[in-house]
Amino acid sequence: MTRLTSRYALVSALLLNEAVSVSAGKPSLSVNVKNGDYSGLEGLEPTVEWSTDGKAGEWFDYEIGGGLSIRPTEDASPLPRSLFGKIGRKFGDWGISARADLGASESDAADVDFRVENDELDLALKVVGSAGTESCSVGRVQVRKGLTLFNSSVNITPRYNLKSGSGDVALSCKAGSTGVDIVASLEEQKFALSQKILDNNFISPSFTTSGDFALKVKRNLADDKSIAATIKPNDSVSVQWTDGDWVADFDAPIDGISLEGISIKVRRKIDVY
């Protein structure tokens, strides 16, 4: 318990002690069936996620939340936990935010996400790294610049991974109901096209220079319902069904025409107060 407390203190340190206002969100209940294990309760992984936001002191906005596995066990201490904390502040047109995430691993390091954004200039800087009681490191850095060219919205994002020493450039362009995305590095290039068909249908094929192909399709239905599917030949297929507050995800690997080891995740936002 002492180790968990010290780890979560890394996230809690992002928040100031004096809270002026708080806005509590609805908890989200999820139930997973992993790897097609329907034989008993062992295959079920129910979790609860929750977050709240408000103002800390006079200057900073904050958000804090976490997740907890509620699967019955003999000892509650091994239950997977997650916790995140985020603070942010505006300086004129500039916004600065920092977020730290802790997972269920034994490591005391938190994943840190630092951002500086300017909506007026359509410019953003993102730095991702880790911070612990013994060391801090920077993992990835990216800069995004938005432009308007010939009635099209264009975003250019150079990215660099300091750990692997590799980088790439992401380019996205959207004009009306058509979008094009390109990610290019020295090793591989990926191209994706997205197209809105009529009012409720979307289709997005993508391919890479190494031979990978994926097809995404989505249809919006009435009453806040939608269904989306992603197919990667000889790799996997995933389907997401949304019905208001209910969301169901189905994922399965593909071996030829065989589907095995289907994973199911069902979640819903619920009121508990």
Give the structure's gist in a few sentences.
By secondary structure, this protein is mostly beta strands.
Give structural notes:
- The chain has one helix and 20 strands.
- It has 273 residues and is mainly β.
- The protein has an 18-stranded antiparallel barrel.
- The longest helix is centred in the first third of the chain and has 11 residues.
- It is globular and about 55 Å long.
- The two termini are 28 Å apart.
- The N terminus is likely disordered.
Give the SSE map.
Blueprint: H1 2-12, E1 19-24, E2 28-33, E3 44-56, E4 60-69, E5 81-91, E6 94-102, E7 110-118, E8 123-131, E9 136-149, E10 152-161, E11 166-175, E12 178-185, E13 189-197, E14 201-208, E15 213-221, E16 225-232, E17 236-243, E18 246-255, E19 258-259, E20 263-269
Antiparallel strand pairs: 1-3, 2-3, 2-20, 3-4, 4-5, 5-6, 6-7, 7-8, 8-9, 9-10, 10-11, 11-12, 12-13, 13-14, 14-15, 15-16, 16-17, 17-18, 18-19, 18-20
Strand content: over 45%
Rg (CA only): 22 Å
Judging from the principal axes of the Cα atoms, what is the shape? globular
Regions with little confidence, pLDDT below 50 for 5+ residues: 1-22
Q: Indicate the mean pLDDT.
A: 82
Oligomer: single chain
Structural class: mainly beta
Distance between the termini: 28 Å
Helix content, binned percent: under 10%
Number of strands: 20
Q: How would you spell out the order of helices and strands?
A: HEEEEEEEEEEEEEEEEEEEE
